[in-house]
Design a protein that fits this description.
The complex is a heterodimer. Chain A is of the alpha/beta class. Chain A is 29% helix and 22% strand. Classes of the chains: A alpha/beta, B mainly alpha.
Chain lengths: 327, 337
């Protein structure tokens, strides 16, 4: 493999120490939040990470941001290993990779004005020493994020804005550093449905105008077809299927992906199709099932699934899935 | 809406003035009967004393006295009743005459109020500073030995009985050769100013120490838990993702937000602090307001108590007003109305 990717994640793992199995056991047990995740990202590409709550999507985003230290694995960015960095290197990297948090009601400091919030990254990184230049960049970022006219919002406080406007502020604060990768951790899940489309449109636009690569984390497969190039489906800390967006949406191969897709509401009631409703709860990430980790809930599980952990099967140049049924 | 707030503050003070006045008229005793217990006192003298303090006038229309309740004439000129004379004099800054000192109350309290403000001021400022700093370190180094030490000593300091701590410090101070009572060494007034100041600091040391220890523990614990809450917020994580260092996060994001609960507690404390300061002032014979209250209760010096209560009420109301204004400055979500 000589091809160099913009961002390359290899075998990334993050285990959190949970508890001990019993009072007398010495070995602590671990939550397998992210368990052997690998994927690539090209410059300007949008990848959607899809999965249900607790599948490790958010932990993965924290690992990519360097806000958590991985247990194992490596992250390469632009040909450079960024898995473990010291504070100084990490800080300079933060300019390149920025994040949009899930909840715009929580991720803005209530005591700062919008201008202070968006200006802060510039100050911290010592970009644009000149005050006038800074305010120019702040206004540019705000208008790119759809806060127009920017002057109206500059001296407001977060609590004076709506959820959608707040999320635009969060996006503007990320954009102001002109990052190359934008990590969006469920950026619309806390917003009203009417606002969601606007924010997704905004991200899609930015990707075209600014050539930003976007890692879009979501639990809603319905919204990804809209602007993602590729989709990765996660289950219990691992990617089970990854492929171009059409491949995933039109010919899903993994039973979990099929189940997720089958429950997306279809606008046309005549196109009623069979819904696959998964039985049971997500297994405990401390005691992972043996073999394929999806087998306890899989409608197609065979005997072999309980003992064999399925390897990735390459289905096309871009499409891969981990299931024993694929041969 | 600052004016509305001020209006409410004034209204509260007026309410306190009225309540305070009748409270001390219901209590038994007057200077002629309780202050001077001399059987040879002639009726004329007793009446003269009552006239001297204005106690011969009816309390208010329709009531001669409130203890024992004696119904009087309702046709009295209202301006010639004790209540309206009191209110009228109060507006002129005259709080009456102390039964015990036989001097104007405002004069006696004036000296003592400044001593108390000196003690509370020094103590509160130290307690806030140290409490915030220790609380910050405890939260920053959470679940380490430093944190647990701070937590336990904070709890211990908070739960110590004030008078007990003061007495322990008194013994310790005696061994250390520190002055343990009063505000100045007798005869100090003839020394140069700097010597007098040094003497004052020596006398201030023990009571301030006692006061600081009691309040610091509380502030530290509240600062610690409030800071831990704030540090768990998403915007702290967001700040980290923006590239801020730990110091910058603490300084720019965490401190201001975690100060909010502390401001409320400090304002409430300034109200309750008078109770604590009575104990400290009594143990260290500090000539402050608290000591004056303690002594005046025994002496049944009602005008002095009445004046002291009013002063305390005004201080509490002002402290709350300031806290409200500070709050709206610290937290833009709060609007003063």
């Amino acid at each position: 493999m000589s091809q160099e990717y913009f961002l390359e994640v290899r075998g990334l793992k993050k285990y959190f120490e949970a508890d001990r199995a019993s009072l007398f056991s010495r070995e602590p047990r671990f939550v397998h939040a992210v368990d052997d995740v690998s994927f690539n990202l090209n410059r300007g590409e949008v990848i959607a990470l899809v999965g249900e709550s607790g599948c490790g999507k958010s932990t993965l985003s924290l690992l990519l941001m360097g806000l958590e230290d991985p247990t194992a694995g490596s992250i390469m960015f632009d040909g450079r290993d960024i898995t473990h960095l010291n504070d100084h290197e990490r800080k300079s990297l933060r300019r390149k990779i920025q994040m949009v948090f899930q909840d715009p009601y929580e991720s803005l400091n209530p005591t700062q004005t919008i201008e202070e919030i968006i200006n802060e990254p510039l100050l911290v990184h010592g970009i644009a020493k000149d005050k006038k230049e800074r305010s120019g960049r702040v206004i540019k970022a705000m208008e790119d994020a759809g806060l127009k006219p920017a002057e109206v919002y500059l001296n407001r406080f977060p609590h004076e804005l709506s959820g959608g406007q707040r999320q635009r502020v969060v996006i503007a604060a990320a954009l102001v550093l002109e990052p190359e990768i934008l990590l969006a951790d469920e950026p619309v899940s806390m917003l009203d449905v009417s606002i969601r489309a606007e924010i997704i449109n905004l991200l899609a636009e930015l990707r075209i105008t600014r050539q930003i690569a976007v890692i879009f984390i979501t639990h809603d497969l319905g919204s990804v077809g809209f602007f993602a190039d590729r989709v990765a489906v996660m289950y219990l800390g691992r990617i089970v299927e990854i492929g171009a967006v059409l491949e995933i949406l039109e010919s899903p191969q993994h039973p979990y992906t099929k189940a997720l897709l089958s429950v997306i509401p279809v606008p046309n009631p005549r196109l009623r199709h069979e819904r696959i409703i998964l039985q049971g709860e997500t297994p405990n990430p401390i005691d992972l099932p043996t073999g394929c980790r999806f087998h306890p809930r899989c409608p197609l599980a065979m005997d072999a699934c309980t003992s064999n952990d399925p390897p990735f099967i390459t289905l096309s140049k871009t499409h891969q899935a981990a299931c024993l049924l694929l041969k | 809406m600052l004016l509305k707030r001020l209006g409410w503050a004034l209204f509260t003070i007026l309410f306190v003035v009225i309540l305070n006045f009748f409270l001390f008229r219901i209590l038994p005793g007057d200077p002629a009967r309780q202050g001077i217990r001399d059987p040879r006192l002639s009726l004329e003298t007793i009446n003269a004393i009552r006239v001297r303090f204005g106690l011969d006038k009816p309390v208010i229309n329709c009531f001669e006295t409130l203890n024992p309740i004696k119904i009087g004439s309702c046709g009295v000129n209202p301006l010639d009743t004790q209540f309206f004379i009191y209110v009228g004099n109060l507006l002129k800054g005259d709080m009456g005459t102390s039964f015990y000192y036989n001097r104007p109350v405002e004069e006696v309290l004036g000296e003592r109020l400044w001593n108390t403000i000196l003690l509370i001021g020094a103590g509160q400022i130290l307690a806030i500073l140290l409490g915030v700093i220790f609380g910050l370190f405890a939260a920053w180094k959470v679940r380490t030995a430093l944190d647990y030490t701070a937590l336990i000593s904070g709890l211990v300091a908070w739960s110590l009985p004030t008078f007990w701590l003061a007495i322990i410090l008194l013994f310790w101070g005696t061994n250390m050769g520190l002055p343990i009572g009063g505000k100045a060494t007798p005869g100090m007034s003839s020394y140069p100013f700097m010597d007098q100041l040094g003497d004052l600091f020596q006398h201030l040391f023990l009571p301030t120490l006692a006061y600081t220890i009691i309040y610091m523990g509380e502030y530290m614990l509240i600062m610690r838990s409030s800071l831990l809450d704030v540090l768990a917020e998403d915007y702290i994580m967001a700040a980290k993702a923006k590239g801020l260092s730990t110091f910058q996060i603490l300084k720019d994001h965490a401190l201001k937000n975690s100060m909010l609960p502390l401001v409320t507690i400090i304002a409430i404390n300034l109200g309750f602090t008078v109770a604590g300061v009575i104990q400290i002032e009594t143990v260290f014979s500090w000539p402050g307001l608290g000591g004056a209250i303690f002594e005046s209760v025994g002496r049944k010096d009602y005008p002095l108590l009445q004046g002291a209560f009013l002063l305390i009420a005004i201080c509490v109301i002002l402290a709350n007003l300031i806290a409200d204004l500070t709050y709206s400055y610290l937290d833009p979500r709060v609007q003063v109305d």
